[in-house]
Amino acid sequence: MASFLLHFFRKVGLKMPKNRIQETIFTVMMVIVMVYGLVCYNIALETGAMKNFIFVAALSELPIMGVAAFILDTFIAGPIAKKKAMKLVDPKRDNPFMMVLAISVFSVLFMCPMMSFVATILFKGGFNAEMIATWLETTVKNFPMAFFYQLMIAGPFVRWIFGLIFADKKESEEKKVKIQKEC
């Protein structure tokens, strides 16, 4: 899996936010893609199968879950994930891809239980006698999907789009020259 992702990032580039504005835009993009995907997944679990109507139905939950995800990621999960990743990966020594991978893994590790809790409160009966059990069940069901969706689909897709939006002119020219040489 890591070799596939490393190959992907070599081809499309590993564009990371360089300032607070870019970081906020990146977070909004990631939140929209992750929340939409996980809402579709949860509706499919509830209905028993993936159906076309789910893609539209998920849009109704996206605003409230998106705001919750943005707040939780910006103020809790994101800072903790970055601190944990910095303890695990040395940016001066290790490949930058390893830092991206570590932050992504820690983000899922912290965001999945928090967002599952929000979904439990808002959509699965709220505060009741079974709340903890429902939250744990929701977390266990969501974690594998969130993990692989983040690493294999959402993360690469958002980084690719982000790279297109914030491509440096110098980097773009260098990539064009490199691609022309490869052809």
Q: How would you describe what is shown here?
A:
- The protein has one domain (20-161).
- It has helices at residues 2-12, 20-47, 53-88, 96-123, 131-165, 169-182.
- Helix content is 83%, strand content 0%.
- It is mainly α.
Key terms for this structure?
mainly alpha, 6 helices, 0% strand
List the topology elements.
Layout: H1 2-12, H2 20-47, H3 53-88, H4 96-123, H5 131-165, H6 169-182
Helix pairs in contact: 1-5, 2-3, 2-5, 3-4, 4-5
Radius of gyration: 18 Å
Major beta sheet, specifics? none
Tell me the β content: under 5%
Shape: globular
Q: State the order of secondary-structure elements, H for helix, E for strand.
A: HHHHHH
Instruction: Give me the number of helical elements.
Output: 6
Mean of pLDDT: 91
Distance between the termini: 27 Å
Q: Helical content, roughly?
A: over 70%
Contiguous runs where pLDDT drops below 50 for at least 5 residues:
none
> Strand tally, please?
0
Structural class: mainly alpha
Whole-number tally of structural domains: 1
